[in-house]
Design goal:
There is one protein chain. By secondary structure, this protein is α/β, with parallel strands linked by helices. The protein has one domain (27-38, 49-267): Divalent-metal-dependent TIM barrel enzymes (TIM Barrel), CATH 3.20.20. It has helices at residues 17-26, 49-62, 82-102, 119-132, 134-137, 160-170, 182-187, 195-208, 243-251, 268-283; strands at 7-10, 31-34, 68-70, 106-109, 112-113, 143-147, 155-156, 176-181, 214-219, 221-222, 233-234, 260-262. α1 links the parallel β1 (7-10) and β2 (31-34). α1 runs parallel beside α2 (49-62) and α9 (243-251) crosses α10 (268-283). The chain is globular and about 50 Å long. It starts with 6 loop residues before the first strand and ends with a helix.
Length: 285
């Protein structure tokens, strides 16, 4: 195991991006995820030079590595509505620019929603949306991570086959990968409650996507049952997945070293305990 395991949470950037780093430090995080912009607004904010300087200083001070942005929930890169697709692509482009300003390792995005038409058409539009920003993405080092979804409503990205399709479509043109959300894949039908379950799940991912394209995890338990297709996060050990799954995740040779970000519902005090718990699984090895 490396000296520094990358475990963190989705921290608050209220008052500026550096705040997310300092909150991460307070809870014992070695990596963080945050919003670079208000996720409920289409209008993007301008990143001033002073904030970038403060961010760089905070990175140095906290020692946090591989920070990740989570794109706005408003964005639908597969929308069949021309106006919404245009707004989504524009907002995504602004998000990429903010990621470049902060030199973020990853930009996590929910693939899209097939509000009309079939899923295949939606997936094609998502690929086109990613390729639309090929030149801009080439100007920085940020890698786009497509997040696995629970398949709630008409969301796509709930199967490894769909994610594999997207990765294959764009990987020669843009830096792309996958972020597995444990709650989401469980709700989508992948049973990760045991070591054997993880073995089968990772084998399926290798077949459909390729483990070389797996870059990060959102670590969340699930309020809902296996295959429910309902996205409801629970604190670790307080849901239907259970702690054994996260022990395996922290110790399995194919997943142990990848960055992990908590999005569990109880907030910073609980995150501090959960980060310590995940580390404890490794120390017992």
């Amino acid at each position: 195991m490396p000296h520094k395991l990358l475990i963190g949470a989705h921290t608050s950037a209220a008052g500026g991006a550096p705040h997310a780093l300092y909150e991460g430090k307070e809870i014992g995080a070695t990596t963080i995820q945050f919003f670079t912009n208000n996720q409920r607004q289409w209008r993007g904010r301008t990143i001033e030079k002073e904030e970038i300087v403060a961010w760089e200083a905070a990175l140095e001070e906290t020692g946090i590595e591989k920070p990740m942005s989570h794109a706005s929930y408003l964005i639908n890169l597969g929308s069949p509505d021309p106006e919404l697709l245009h707004k989504s692509r524009a907002a995504f482009g602004e998000e990429i620019e903010r990621c470049h300003h902060f030199r973020l390792a990853f930009l996590n995005v929910h693939p899209g929603v097939a509000t009309q038409g079939n899923e295949e058409e939606c997936l094609e539009r998502i690929a086109e949306s990613l390729l639309h920003w090929e030149k801009l993405l080439a100007k920085g080092e940020t890698r786009i991570l497509l997040e696995t979804t629970a398949g709630q409503g008409k969301c796509v990205g709930y199967s490894f086959e769909q994610l594999g399709f997207l990765v294959e479509k764009v990987k020669k043109h843009v830096q792309v990968g996958v972020c597995i959300d444990t709650c989401h894949i469980f709700a989508a039908g992948y049973d990760i409650r045991t070591e054997e379950g993880w073995k089968k799940t990772l084998a399926a991912f290798e077949k459909e996507v390729g483990l070389e394209h797996l870059y990060a995890f959102h670590c969340n338990d699930s309020e809902k049952e296996l295959g429910s297709r309902v996205d409801r996060h629970a604190s670790l050990g307080k849901g239907k997945i259970g702690l054994e799954s996260f022990r395996v995740l922290m110790t399995h040779p194919q997943t142990a070293l990848l960055p992990k970000y908590l999005e569990t519902p109880e907030g910073p005090i609980r995150w501090k305990e959960e980060i310590a718990l995940l580390r404890k699984f490794v120390s017992k090895q």
